[in-house]
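Hi there, hope your week has been kind to you so far. It would help a lot if you went through both lines with me. No rush at all, and the record is pasted right below:

***
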Amino acid sequence: MSTKIRPEHLARPAFVYIRQSTLVQVLEHRQSTERQYNLADRAKRLGWDGAQVQVIDEDLAHSGASAVDRTGFQRLAADVSLGRVGAILSLEVSRLARSSADWHRLLDLCALSDTLIIDDDGVYDPNDFNDRLVLGMKGTMSDAERHVMRLRLQGGKLHKANKGELAFPSATGYVFDSTGALVLDPDEQVQKAVRLLFERFRLDGTAYAVVRYFCRHRLLFPSRRAHKHAPAEIRWRPLSHARALETLRNPTYAGAYVYGRRQKRRVLADGAVQRRTSLIPREQWHTLLRDAHAGYISWEEHMDNLKRLDENRSRTERIDRHGAPKNGEALLQGLALCGRCGRRMHTVYRRANNPGYECSRRPEAAGTCWSVPTRRIDDKVAEIFLDAVAPPEIDLSLAVLREVEHQAAGVDRQWKLRLERARYEADRVERQYNAVEPENRIVARTLEARWNEKLEELAQIEREYEETRRAHKLDLSTDDKKAIMALARDLPKVWRAPTTTAAERKQLMRLLIEDVTLSPVDIPERSTRIQLLWKTGATSEVFTSRPIAGCKTSNEVLAIIRDLAAQRRGDSEIADELNRRGLKSGRGRSFTKQAIVMIRSEYEISAGRPPGGHKPAPPRDELGRYSLRALAARHDVTTHMIRYWIETGVVTPAQDYKGGPFWFALTPEIEARIAEAKARGYGPRRPGGKNGGRLPLPLRDSAGRYSTRGLVEKYRVTTHIVRRWIETGVVTPELDAPDGDFHFTLTPAVDKRIQAALRRGTGPRSAKRAHQRPLAGSKI
């Protein structure tokens, strides 16, 4: 036994540390693993009792380059720092750490706690200068050895990459053939899906639009999962935005062999060292070999796609980026430039449906550069654009028809390929089931269940295919083709059609217009100069009037509006009266109903109400008649039920003046009709009513579920509120038949959501009128 091993060392446990870098080494280098486990016998021979020898082998298949992921090394260092370890046994120093920083920290801890280090060469005491010198040199050599090995391996990889021979997992849509060459996936469905993605981006221009197209037509996109020593697995999933971007940015689809697109580096994040991967510029790629294999698109189209993706980034001050067309009403979104400072103008929405173009540059902190409403500018630019677009009608009509047919055929082909794959998988499971001996029921039952599952999946795909064909008209009829031809000849009609979205109009305009520069002009009259830069390099210049800044409604007009509103005059009547008197708005225009609404909103003028605000009608008037709400409270029903009784002739209201409140005189005959109607609920109307004479549903069915009327009566709300609860997910209706009536199962969780909705109210009006109707006998 070595003289360096003293009794105080033997009194503490001996730790045997075992580590190999990879799982392959653990499986294939069995002799090394066995030698490390034999160190426990050596510890016994050196004087430690068998119960004191502990083996740490949880770091098998972990690299020694860092101690971050090595829980065994971390536990060993913690026990050493607490003075619980007498000696550390390892086959060689590199097993403990291949990082000089980790190694020297362990040496310092061992010196402080008087812990020995024992390897295959001998016993070392870190407190002895010579031993520490030897241990330090061994740690440095271990670290240097790791660096040299990495350089050799990396050099070999880079050499193969320079020749385009370094193999890595193939992108979806590609496979390696028997010679190791990268070729297109022979699966036709995979090829069609990848080609469709690039085709839709070519047409739509944004990754989000491609994702929406796949989602709208219920198309799936393949994902390739490679397995070592096994065929790759193709999984079909809905296309995500991240997946679409990854495919569009991957140069492999342009036929290029690329290595070194990403860079890995270690960073300190949240108090821990982490590895981050980031993309690097194309100029810094290690290898780029164009035309190395067959591509789905050309290299030029790939570069155009990258440029369009870069231009779609709207959150930037660069004027060469237009951003993706969005669904806002501003037609020049992403195209408008400021004629004063040259910056890109942004779209602002200070009021609903009233956007404006604004240059947010603040010269000398004096506010924004300038802004202008969009309506007049957009109308003028659209007029110029439609005048400029005048292609030959027949050629355009035929081109549009061919494109529509091509898109419909592409979607239909994807569905047919998906159906073909589903039928093949069902037939394959059927053949497996038929090949099993009938007596082998254990296997037969499993295959039978799998066969039924595939048949159900096939039936589901067939139903979805038929729904998609009906919804999106994948088979164009003769009438459809005639309608398309007619629309193609009338581009202004297509432009103004309500089915044409704002994003589609912007995309059409960007085909011809590069930029639009807007400049304010004050002399000789207030206007906006519009300069159009066409894709051809030609320019056009027009002017349009600009609204007067800071225009306000005159005090005379405001006083008249207040007086007429106090007289219960409607907005249309107020506008007609102001126009009759020859008055104009602050912008010099005639008054409209919408203009009066905006003025009242801005100056907080009540609509058709006295200045003191609207006072509800009293429960009863001087003649003893009941108001509508008082009648509802008297019979414990909703006001909607009272209006239903009015429609069905149960009660007849009286109005003292036009627009006044309803009053109801109650007689014994009317009380009897009300009692009968209340018992009937929303029962059968007069013959020929819109409910067809159907009897009302009971409040609850035999299963204890509530009908809509049951919820109305239980929570004292209206049917409109119940419909609102359905829309917002507060309650979930159940249908016993496709055209049946709603039923609701009330659980404690559902009741809790309903109570929360009652407390919350219906929205902005809930402060004035709550969900619930008043109880009988309460004050109205």
